Amino acid sequence: MAPDREPNTALAQVIAETGLTNAALAHAVRRVAWENGETVQTNKSTVTHWVRYGVQPSGNAGRHLAEALSRRLGRVVTLREIGLPEPDPELLDWRTDTLSALADLGRIDTMDIDRRQAMGTAAYSLAALTLPGSSWWTHMADHGRTRRSGRVLAGQGDLDAARDMAGLFSTMDQRHGGGHARTAVVRYLTTEVSSYLNGTFSDDRVRRGMFSTAAELAYLSGWMAFDNGEHATAQKHFTVAVKLAAEADDSPMAAHILRAMAHQANDLGHPKAALDLASASVEGKRYAEASPRERALLGVVHARGLASTGQKNAAVRALLRAEDDLAAARHGDGEPGRVFFFQEASLAHQTGLALRDTGDLSAAEQQLQRSVRTRKATTFTRTHAVTLGYLGSVQARQHRVEEACSTWSAGLDAMTGVRSARTRQAAVEMRAALSSLRQRGIRAVTDVDTRAAAYLAATA
Length: 460
Prior knowledge:
Largest sheet: 2 strands, parallel
Number of strands: 2
Strand content: under 5%
InterPro entries: TPR-like_helical_dom_sf
Protein name: Tat pathway signal protein
C-alpha cells in the first residue's frame, strides 16, 4: 500500500520543467551520486514515490536529486524549491573541516584516470555555487584563531618559502598553461604546506599568512585544473581555497577566488551564477581591503557578469571603475604577488570580452587589439594565445576572414608548448568558424585549419 502522505507538488513541477521521465531522472541521480563517490538505489518507482506519495529521499539522495535537476535546467535548484528540508548546516560542504577537505584534494588527484575524466564538465555542480551567509565568514575567522595546533612549528622563514613557491608555480602557469605541473602544486600544498597548517605558529601573523598562502596555492591548483578543462576538480579546489582564506580572515584573497569561480561559471555558460559570484567578490571588505590592482581585476570580471546577463549600462560603469582602479595602482602599495599578471593587457582582454558579450564587436576588437599590443607575450604566453583566438573570432564575426586568419595564425604560433583547454578551445573555434570555407581553396583558410587540426592532435 502506498504511504499515506501528500504528493510533493513542488518536486513534480520542477521535474515537469525538465521534461525528464521518472526513469531518466533516476538515472541522472545515480550518475551524480557516482561522480561524488557514492551509490544510491533509485529507479522509476523510487522517483514516483518521491513525487506521488511525498516520500523523503534517504541519505544524500535528496542532494543528488537537486544537483541532477540543476544540471538539467542550467540553474541552481535548491532542496527547498523541490519541497525537501535543508540538511543540518553542519553537513554542508561549506561546514566540513577545512584541513580535512584539503587532505581530500590530494586523494582526488591520485584517482584513476578514468574516474577523473568522468568528473570533468559533467560533474560541475551548480548547486555548490550557493555561498554561505555572513555568519559563516565570522565563524571561520574565529575558528582559525582558536584551531588546536600540532607539533610542527612554522615561522616567518617557512612562510616566505611557501610564498616563493606559490609565485614560482603562478609564473609557470602563465607561461605554459594548466596542463603543466598542476600535480606538483597539489603535492606541495597537501604535504609540506598542510603539515604547517596542522602544526603551530610562531605568532598569529604567521598563521594567517600561511593559511592565506595555502588558499593561494589551492586557488592556483583549481585555476590550473579549470584551464586544463577539469572543471569538477577545479570547483573542489576553489571551494577549499575559499575556506582557507576565510580561516585566514583574508577578504581580498577570498574575493580573488570568488572572481575565479565567476570566470569559470561564465565560461561554462552559467551567466546568472557567474554574476552572483562576481557580485560577492566586490562586496564589503573583499573590495574595500583589496589593493587597487586587485580591485580592478575583481571589477572587470564583475563587468563581464553584468554584460553576460544583459545589463549593458551597469557593465560599462563597472568597466570604467576598473580602469580607474588600475590607474591608481602604484608600486609599493602593498599589493599581493598573485595579481602580478593583471596589467593593462589583462584589463583590455577582459574589457573586450565584456563588450563582445554586449554585442559591440567593433569596441571589443579595439580592446582585444590593445591587449595584444601591450602584453609581454613571452611572459604571459597562454593568455596571449587565447586573446588572439578571441580577436580572430570577433574579426570573423564581422566577415573579415582574411584578417581573422592572420590573427589566428599568430595565435597558433603562440600556442607552441602551451597545454591548456582554453587554447584548445580557441583552436576548435577557429576550425568551426572556417568550416563553411574549407572547400573554396582559400590558402589562408586552409593553412589555419590545417595548423589548428595539428595542434589539437598534438595536445589531445
